[in-house]
Amino acid sequence: MSLEIYDVVVLGAGAAGLMAAASAAQDGARVLVLDHGPEPGRKILISGGGRCNFTNLETAPQCFLSQNKHFVRSALARFTPHDFLKKVDQYHIRWHEKAKGQLFCDQSAKQIVDLLISECRAGQCKLQLQTTIKNVQRHARGFSIQTNIKEYIARAVILATGGLSIPKLGASDLSLRIARSFGVRIVPTAPALAPLILPDADPSLAGVSLIVEAKVGKKKPSFRDGMVFTHKGISGPAVLQISSYMEKGETAQINLLPDMNAEQHLLAMKHARPKASPPALLDGLPSRLAKAFSAALGDVTLANLPDKKIKALAASIAHWQIAPVGTEGYAKAEVMRGGIDTRDLSSQTMEVMSVPGLYAIGEAVDVTGWLGGHNFQWAWSSGVAAGKAA
Ligand code: FDA
């Protein structure tokens, strides 16, 4: 099999890999990017509903889950959302800010892929798609990367094949397997930013949406955002956010009326509309949901409902307890949590501390961002950190 020699071989032509490749190549390295897919950046193309939520201006270490919550600090500080935004502006990509600092393309996510490819071209980096990576081993000159096409030799290898979510787009555990083969520890992985399955899901509620405040446990953050009922349970931004924090068997609390004091409001409704039936108490909820939550009160007028029952209903709305049986899995998850253990990586360079020349970036690493552009920012920041160091 013929040999080709590079300074840096990047495994994975996704968000992090392309960013790392461009950074390394523009610093003068001879760079090859390998990917098994038919085109680069496939997750970027489908992200943000096709408009790519490419960063979040409010990104900060607390917007990430990781066994080491300080790990992201250095990379995020050295390549910030404003640094990526400068590139977006340089390529005349028009963008808009949605809620909470979330930046989206006005036109298409493809513009972000085109930006990354142009940046790679500017450094004359080579991109080779539809390549099966068979093995990565140590070599006298660094590493040998065996593929179905050729063997490549490089002094540095950057693991950037992402996480396990959306297998139909080519997700695989390659980076985790290679890391493990070099003795790197792996934090157990699970689907994150995923819809939740409820044991008692009511399919008649599917499609009902509202703003809620959701949280898991006392020490984890709460999220006020949209929720939508599905045939299997619940989804929507607030639910996806708490799914990243949920452990097996854990319950979550959802306030279905986060903008009011439910007890005061329901008691006031009783006095305002004594002849109405129970769903009228829940006029702040979508009507299908109001009917479902008040069904147990029966067909009585509000005047005949004891305050005790109204207070109990208010509590069940303000502290709706859910005990999901799980998530809808990697097929529906936006990201994977867990991955390459940050204890084995330098937070400055993303290099595996025990294997000089081996780097890991992006979603393959045990760093999982909140919904809202934080995951791409991590891909850019970790990519630049590794690309410059490699
Ligand atoms: P990424 O998955 O981008 O790239 C990995 C690359 O490695 C792919 O090109 C893949 O083909 C390749 N690869 C995998 N296995 C391989 C193998 N065995 N051999 C060779 N190549 C291999 N985030 C955000 O911040 N804003 C958003 O709007 C969204 N929206 C969104 C929507 C949907 C539907 C999903 C699924 C995800 C998002 N995300 C997001 C998350 C975001 O897409 C994700 O965090 C980044 O793409 C991760 O970048 P990476 O480069 O690490 O992996």
Mean pLDDT over the full residue set: 96
Shape: elongated
Specify the structural class: alpha+beta
**Spans where pLDDT lies below 50 across 5 or more residues:** none
Helix content: 25-40%
Task: Supply Rg.
Answer: 24 Å
Main sheet makeup: 7 strands, mixed
Small ligands present? dihydroflavine-adenine dinucleotide
Number of helices: 11
Portion in strands: 25-35%
Tally of DSSP β-strands: 21
Distance between the termini: 26 Å
Organism: Swingsia samuiensis
Protein name: Aminoacetone oxidase family FAD-binding enzyme
Cofactor: FAD
Keywords: FAD, Flavoprotein
Overview of the molecule:
- The chain has helices at residues 15-26, 42-46, 73-78, 81-90, 110-122, 174-181, 237-243, 262-272, 287-294, 307-318, 374-389, and strands spanning 3-11, 31-34, 53-56, 64-65, 95-97, 102-105, 126-128, 133-139, 142-147, 151-159, 186-192, 196-197, 209-215, 222-229, 233-235, 252-255, 320-322, 326-327, 335-340, 358-360, 368-369.
- With 390 residues, the chain is of the alpha+beta class.
- A hairpin with a 3-residue loop joins β14 (222-229) and β15.
- α1 (15-26) packs parallel to α5 (110-122), α1 (15-26) packs parallel to α11 and α8 (262-272) crosses α10.
- The model has no long low-confidence stretch (mean pLDDT 96).
- Bound molecules: dihydroflavine-adenine dinucleotide.
- Residues 12-17, 35-37, 42-43, 46-48, 52-53, 133, 160-162, 165-166, 170-172, 174, 334-335, 362-364, 373-376, 379 line the site of dihydroflavine-adenine dinucleotide.
- InterPro entries: BaiN-like, BaiN-like_dom_sf, FAD/NAD-bd_sf, RsdA/BaiN/AoA(So)-like_dom, RsdA/BaiN/AoA(So)_Rossmann.
- Residues 7-388 form the RsdA/BaiN/AoA(So)-like Rossmann fold-like domain.
